[in-house]
TrEMBL record:
Composition bias, Acidic residues: 313-337
Species this chain originates from: Striga asiatica
Presence of keyword Repeat: yes
UniProt record, GO biological process: SCF complex assembly
Classification of source organism: Eukaryota, Viridiplantae, Streptophyta, Embryophyta, Tracheophyta
Ranges where the TATA-binding protein interacting (TIP20) domain occurs: 1089-1249
The protein's name: Cullin-associated NEDD8-dissociated protein 1
InterPro entries: ARM-like (IPR011989), ARM-type_fold (IPR016024), CAND1/CAND2 (IPR039852), TATA-bd_TIP120 (IPR013932)
Source superkingdom: Eukaryota
């Protein structure tokens, strides 16, 4: 912009006409916001002066615009001009006219917020700090000036406190005396100011501030309002500095508890502020507050019902859940007293209790015993705001229970079919009378396992329902919403817990949905709860109340607000299942509900002018209605089904409609779909070409279901088109999609009505894709199983012979050799498909194939001895031998091969191969062949182990294959075999070779699953063996015996598990590591086995995170060896697992500092699990992490800023990149926590990441994952 134009604007800004001044200031603001705006030194000074003058403009809108100009202006002018502006504004604030003070204050805050660089900020701070301190401390200065000065200083400290370290002591000296002033507004702003300063104070000055505040609190003669301010100051300090306040809790907490207990009846605010400070301690200093948690719990529970002016004798606890509401019953709300502020104490107590629940998962069992009944009792709270906090606190208790019981099944389900001891494993006795019955129950109660928490909650359900029912009878909408929120969370955490209470809750649901005063929010909460309870309970518990429930739900489908309608449709979907749970026949008469439900949904299905969510819910719900009630909707279906087909043609509703047809096609009613079947098949076939992955998946599933149920009405021509389309989906780029496509292809081939052209199309289109897929190293799981089934089905096709298929499969390995070799996983896949193919073709083909494979082994064995042979030939022969062995193993596992003479000797000859993969395949083959005929081949393997020392390792692997397969198939060995196997294995426990010991351990562990009564005592006996290798082997064996599925070993292992896990304190580090790994597996698969031991095991586990560094003297130089690296890595990985399965037993605060903190600065292999742990803690225990957030910043910052040496190899560079991304994931989790912005160090870290292009790009990609 030309200087002349700017001069014109400035002249108008100083004119007499306020409209001109306004327009000119607006033009200036626009120009300042332009990127290319520049000023010379003369104009800078002139412009700055005029803008400052404009702040005093009599027209408020002009001065307001002038303030807005300051933000861009400070970024465009020199440092000297910024200083002049701030000095003038400070002068206006302290010495100017009263009417200009507010605008000067706002202007100063704007400049401070927008200062562009740290150097400018430093100069501004040096200039204005003394003036602000003078404004605060000068005798006779008005309250308004003090408050404005404190406000501005608070902003300064919040943003630049760390730049003012040299002034911290002076600032503290100026601010602390203001806590004793008689001006309440000054005291209040001083609290905020000191809190802003505290986060950047040194430990010494922080201690000084705390000591001074505590000293003031101890003075009994201090006025009550000043004492309240000092209590607020204590709480604010802890919120500002987090864990750094921990060392001062010993002085502060007893004083606050004393004030709570001894405050006068008229000083409820003193109690309120004390409880708020204690709440802050719980959240911000969870480690150091541990000692006082019991006292705080009792205090919170006591003041939760603190209501000295009101005696409640109206709501006696009664078992009568059918209590009928009296008309105009407002008795609970009759008492009012405007001067009564005791509700503030009760609210503070509820929040304090909530903080205790959130921060102390290890106290949950105790909280259920002491706090849960009290909270339920306080649902009757007369102050609505307090009642909402009580509801929130109880919901927090339920959520924490859900966190520590996540992934577990319900109590009653888990106990079915178990013997008494197994049941006790899952359900520790919680009732005191039960605890005295036997010592096993006592041990289990010490564990406070997940089932204990659920059991304790289940005991409170009747009381919860009685109390909630009373709340649902209240007139307050807010109360009813809160009550349904509690019920909703209860059903989520403890499904099937309301089976005995449906009748008493029905009236509350009905009233919430039908009452004219009900809001949309209340209706949504009531509907969500209804849906959850219908989905989680057996249908028959609702049948007496279906009429009462269904009428308001069906009515809600017609609501105008789309959120209510959508939720009502979802509830209708559950109602359909409930009224007719069994198509074949049921006592309940569902017919009266068929047409009302259908009509309500149909009205929504045919309505085009409505929200997408409603459309999708209507489509899904109609799918359930048709599949369940279709036999009673004969006249309606011709009108309904075309509408669903039409919705398939709409891109927005297409996916939902496809899923709805899958439900309809799977219906046992076998409905007549002839009127739309051809069109549906045609539409679905075209969907296989769409880019939408979810649509393709749903389409494959729906086509499969339609062909199974309606194949007789679909032409062979349609099958051919489907085969062509699905063939393009078979690749390793999407294995799940490939599995679905192969399953559909198998369904098509299995249909006897499919013509020869279908088989031909499969051979030409699908088979080449399948043969390509089988060579993928990624192939596994469901896709591999589907591929096996495909080859099995293909044998029966008239167009494809067994010999051609076998040759095609074997050729895939040959072609891969030509192109550089086939992956090991691919050879296993080929072998499994060959085995399935042979078994499907019959005994004759199987016999000839085995003969061919043994011939290949003989010829390959002779080729291996000719080491001078060409490289390609050698590789080809090696691949043939490798694949032949794997094929024999897979066939032998499925079929007895004893009819082939000396096959075991042919296989064992391959042990002589110079190639490790051949020897490994031979070991695998021998073991699997033995599975097919144990009486013949097991003695052979055992004999060879005893007599062939050089082949021992391979033979042990063969034995492992036998044992593992038997343990999975629940087979049993005869007694003599078990004894012989175990003796042989125990003899090899002390082997010098780690590989041998690992195989022995796995064999022992798996055989323990088969014969636990014999193995567990034998393993326990060896935990005291003098040989460290033996101790490590037996504890590793136990690790292999703890599997996810329920086994008979569990009840035998439970009382003995401590003998193995306590080896975590063994003097040998290898034994300790084995114990840590066993603990980790137990925590993952069977947490209830170890919960009772965790109080003793956790400190021992944490000790394993210490470094074991030793220096080896190699003569000319010394080499540092870290013997504890693997142990530390295992220990941190174990903690990661415990956080998932045993969170209620872990005190995160005692683990984060110092153990996790040291891990974050450790080796790469240790840092990675530590980052995962930190992310998990940020999600599950944010208060514990927030308390020490400052201390976590440095190690994370070092990690993301680390750069490998210039001569680093690619592997080192890649590992470093992985580590940086891992650390950034942890940082993203920390940033997601509420309250992380309290840490200046963490905010600076986030700013540094944002400024670095490389880091910000990585961080953005991680957040989008």
């Amino acid at each position: 912009m030309a200087n002349l134009t700017l001069t014109g604007i400035l002249e108008k800004m100083t004119g007499k006409d306020k409209d001109y001044r306004y327009m000119a200031t607006s033009d200036l603001l626009n120009e300042l916001n332009k990127e290319g705006f520049k000023l010379d030194s003369d104009l800078e000074a002139k412009l700055s002066n005029i803008v400052i003058q404009q702040l005093d403009d009599a027209a408020g809108e002009v001065s307001g615009l002038a303030v807005k100009c300051l933000a861009p202006l400070v970024k465009k002018i020199r440092e000297q001009q910024v200083l002049e502006m701030t000095n003038k504004l400070c002068d206006k604030l302290l010495n100017g006219k009263e009417q200009n003070r507010d605008i000067a204050s706002i202007a100063l805050k704007t400049i401070i917020a927008e200062v562009p660089t740290s150097s400018v900020a430093q100069s501004v701070l040096v200039s204005i700090s003394p003036k602000l301190i003078r404004g605060i401390t000068t005798q006779g200065m008005s309250t308004e000036i003090k408050c404005e000065s404190l406000d501005i200083l608070c902003d300064v400290l919040l943003k630049y406190g760390n730049l003012m370290a040299s002034d911290h002591e002076v600032l503290l000296g100026a601010l602390l005396p203001q806590l004793n002033t008689y001006q309440a507004s000054v005291r209040k702003k001083t609290v905020s100011c000191i809190a802003s300063l505290a986060s950047s104070l040194s430990d010494e000055l922080l201690a000084k501030a705390t000591v001074e505040v505590v000293r003031l609190l101890k003075i009994q003669t201090t006025k009550s309002e000043i004492t309240r301010t000092n209590i607020q100051m204590i709480g604010a300090l802890s919120r500002a500095v987090g864990y750094r306040f921990g060392p001062h809790l010993g002085d502060a907490v007893p004083i606050l508890i004393n004030y709570c207990n001894n405050a006068s009846e008229n000083d409820e605010e003193l109690r309120e502020y004390s409880l708020q400070a204690l709440e802050s301690f719980l959240l911000r200093c969870p480690r150091d507050i541990s000692f006082y948690c019991d006292q705080i719990l009792h205090l919170s529970l006591e003041f939760l019902s603190h209501d000295p002016n009101f005696t409640d004798n109206m709501e006696e606890d009664t078992d009568d859940e059918s209590y009928v509401e009296e008309e105009d019953d407002e008795s609970a709300n009759e008492y009012t007293d405007d001067e009564d502020v005791s509700w503030k104490v009760r609210r503070a107590a509820a929040k304090c209790l909530s903080a205790l629940i959130v921060s102390r998962p290890e106290m949950l069992s105790r909280l259920y015993e002491e706090a849960c009944p009290k909270l339920i009792e306080r649902f009757k709270e007369r102050e609505e705001n307090v009642k909402m906090d009580v509801f929130s606190t109880f919901i927090e208790l339920l959520r924490q229970t859900g966190n520590v019981t996540k992934g577990q099944t319900d109590i009653d389900d888990s106990r079915q079919g178990l013997n008494p001891v197994s049941s006790k494993l899952l359900l520790p006795a919680a009732d005191p009378s039960m605890r005295l019955e036997n010592s096993l129950d006592d041990e289990l109660c010490l564990g406070c396992g997940v089932w204990s928490l659920r059991y304790l909650l289940k005991q409170e359900v009747p009381k919860i329902v009685r109390s909630i029912n009373r709340q649902l009878r209240e007139k307050s909408i807010k109360t009813k919403v809160g009550a349904f929120s509690v019920l909703k969370e209860l059903v989520i955490v403890l499904p099937d817990c309301l089976a005995d209470h449906i009748g008493s809750l029905t009236s509350g649901i009905e009233k919430a949905l039908c009452d004219k005063s009900s809001t949309s929010n209340l209706k949504i909460e009531a509907l969500v709860f209804t849906r959850l309870v219908l989905a989680s309970h057996a249908p028959d518990v609702f049948h007496p109340y279906i009429k009462a429930i269904s009428a308001p739900v069906i009515s809600a489908v017609g609501e105008r607000y789309y959120k209510v309608t959508a939720e009502a449709l979802r509830v209708c979907g559950e109602l359909v299942r409930v009224v007719r749970p069994n198509i074949e026949g049921y006592d309940f008469d569902f017919k009266p509900y068929v047409h009302p439900i259908y009509s309500a949904i149909m009205s929504r299905l045919t309505n085009q002018d409505q929200d997408q969510e409603v459309k999708e819910c209507a489509i899904s719900c109609m799918g359930f209605v048709v599949s369940t009630f279709g036999d009673h909707l004969g006249k309606e279906l011709p009108a309904c089904l075309p509408v669903l087909v039409d919705r398939m043609g709409n891109e927005i509703t297409r996916l939902t409609a496809v899923k709805a047809f899958a439900v309809i096609a799977a219906s046992p009613l076998h409905l007549d779909l002839s009127c739309i079947l051809e069109q549906v098949i045609s539409e679905l076939t075209t969907f296989l070409r769409k880019a939408n992955r979810a649509l393709r998946q749903a389409t494959l599933g729906t086509l499969n279901t339609l062909i199974v149920g309606y194949g007789d009405r679909i032409g062979s021509a349609a099958y051919e088109v489907i085969v062509v389309e699905l063939s393009t989906l078979i690749s390793d780029s999407d294995l799940h999609m490939a599995a679905l496509a192969l399953e559909l292809c198998c369904t098509l081939m299995a249909d006897k009505r499919s013509g020869p052209n279908v088989g031909l199309t499969v051979r030409n289109k699908v088979l080449p894709q399948a043969l390509t897929l089988i060579t993928s190293p990624l192939l596994q799981g469901q896709a591999l199983l589907a591929l096996q089934n495909f080859f099995g089905a293909l044998v029966y096709s008239a167009n494809t012979s067994f010999d051609v298929l076998l040759d095609s499969l074997l050729s895939t390995a040959k072609s891969s050799v030509q192109s550089g070799g086939v992956a090991k996983q691919a050879l296993f896949s080929i072998a499994q498909c060959v085995a399935v193919l042979c078994l499907a073709a019959g005994d004759e083909k199987c016999y000839s194939t085995v003969n061919m494979l043994t011939d290949l082994l003989r010829s390959a064995g002779s080729a291996n001895s000719m080491l001078a042979i060409g490289n390609r030939l050698k590789n080809g022969s090696q691949a043939k031998q490798h694949l032949s062995l794997l094929c024999l193993g897979e066939i032998g596992r499925r079929k007895d091969l004893s009819s082939h003479d000396h096959i075991e000797n042919i296989v064992i000859e391959s042990f002589q191969s110079p190639f490790e993969e051949i020897k490994s395949a031979a070991s695998y083959a021998l073991g699997n062949i033995a599975v097919g005929n144990l009486p013949k081949y097991l003695p052979f393997i055992l004999d060879k182990i005893d007599n062939q020392q050089k082949k021992q390792y391979l033979l042990l692997h063969s034995l492992k294959e036998v044992i593992v397969r038997q343990s999975v198939d629940k087979a049993e060995f005869d007694d003599s075999s078990v004894e012989k196997i175990t003796n042989l294995l125990f003899n090899h426990c002390e082997s010098d070779e780690e590989g041998v010991r690992n195989v022995v351990a796995e064999c022992l562990g798996k055989i323990a699953l088969i014969e636990p009564g014999k193995l567990v005592p034998s393993l326990k006996e060896r935990t005291s063996n003098p040989a460290a290798f033996t101790r490590a082997t037996v504890v590793t064996a136990v690790k292999y015996s703890i599997v996810e599925r329920q086994e008979k070993i569990d009840e035998i292992l439970y009382p003995e598990i401590s003998s193995f896990l306590m080896l975590i304190k063994d003097h040998d580090r290898h034994v300790r590591r084995a114990a840590v790994l066993a603990l980790s597996i137990a925590a993952h698969n069977k947490p209830n086995l170890i919960k009772g031991l965790l109080p003793e095991l956790l400190p021992l586990l944490y000790d394993q995170t210490k470094e074991l560094i030793r220096t080896v003297d190699l003569g000319p130089f010394k080499h540092t060896v870290d013997d504890g690296l693997e142990l530390r890595k295992a220990a941190f990985e174990c903690v990661d697992t415990l956080l998932d399965s045993c969170l209620d037993q872990v005190n995160p605060s005692s683990f984060i500092v110092p153990y996790l903190l040291s891990g974050l600065e450790d080796h790469y292999d240790v840092k990675m699990p530590c980052h995962l742990i930190l992310s998990k803690l940020a999600d599950k225990c944010p208060s514990a992490v927030l308390a020490v957030l400052d201390s976590l910043v440095d190690p994370l910052q070092k990690t993301i800023n680390f750069r490998p040496k210039q001569d680093a190899v690619k592997q080192e560079v890649d590992r470093n990149e992985d580590m940086i991304r891992s650390a950034l994931r942890a940082i993203a989790s920390l940033n997601h926590m509420s309250g992380g912005d309290c840490s200046h160090k963490f905010k600076n870290l986030m700013n540094d990441i944002a400024k670095s292009q490389a880091l910000s790009e990585k961080y953005s990609s991680i957040r989008n994952e």
